[in-house]
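re: ur msg from earlier - yeah i can do the NAP complex, just paste it... oh wait u already did. ok heres what im feeding in:
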Amino acid sequence: MGGLGRTINGSYAEYTRASASNVALIESDLPWAELAVIPETYATAWTCLFRNLEITPGQTLVIRGATSAFGQAAVNLAVNAGARVIGTSRNRERFALLEELGVERAELEEPHLSERIPEAKRLDAVLDLVGNTTILDSLAMLRRGGRACLAGWLGGLDPIRDFNPLLQMASGVHLTFFGSFVFGTPGFPLSDVPLQAIAEQVAAGRLKAKPSRVFRFEDIHEAHRVMEAGEGKGKMVVVLD
Ligand SMILES: NC(=O)c1ccc[n+]([C@@H]2O[C@H](COP(=O)([O-])OP(=O)(O)OC[C@H]3O[C@@H](n4cnc5c(N)ncnc54)[C@H](OP(=O)(O)O)[C@@H]3O)[C@@H](O)[C@H]2O)c1
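and the outut:
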């Protein structure tokens, strides 16, 4: 977080530099591989849900790209907070995974989901991890005062072309963005995120956050192959023996 792996080299080094403002104490008996799943993904998902989207119990939320590692963390946190969650995947075979995490329903991900989803115009929030290709469609699903958070780009990073809010944006909806690179900067202290409480909920099994795969450092090529083939099925961790 805070630029690690972007402006600060060393994601795959045994030692690296981290900003002191991004060092957080987590007291836990979880093994390292399970702890490693938490910070980036859960801090980001938590911030999107409870800061950008201001989710409250009983609200109905769509998470697009819900089977991604980030999406699964968001489903976990939102369900645990008492929200009604609808998760999307392009693959019906992955609906069972989302149901295990507690979604009320899974929907097939497609660019015009707003035209098909029964809750259209009544939704409180959309967390959009598919990204620029779907965010306008996500805005079209919201009720007045509803919020969309754009925080992932699984569908590609091409800019949104010919976006004319007058013609394409519903009145009274909110569009927000969040990127984890701001953690540790003024206005975005990491202490805002309840990492200790999240780790405790993981340890207690209330959040299902085990890594989908754990690789040895020597097998990092295989980790990349799995990730690039879309076979990760959740958060993958690399450990040094
Ligand atoms: N804002 C931030 O700070 C932040 C932080 C972390 C990650 N991210 C972003 O969040 C996204 C998810 O990251 P991740 O590491 O969790 O991903 P991941 O686990 O690698 O996600 C893989 C899943 O994404 C879905 N997917 C792949 N291509 C897709 C497409 N073209 N359209 C729709 N769904 C597609 C597939 O699910 P199905 O086959 O089930 O559809 C796939 O299994 C990425 O875009 C990443 O850059 C943002």
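cool cool. The CA atoms of residues 57 and 82 lie 4 Å apart. ping me if u need the other ligands too
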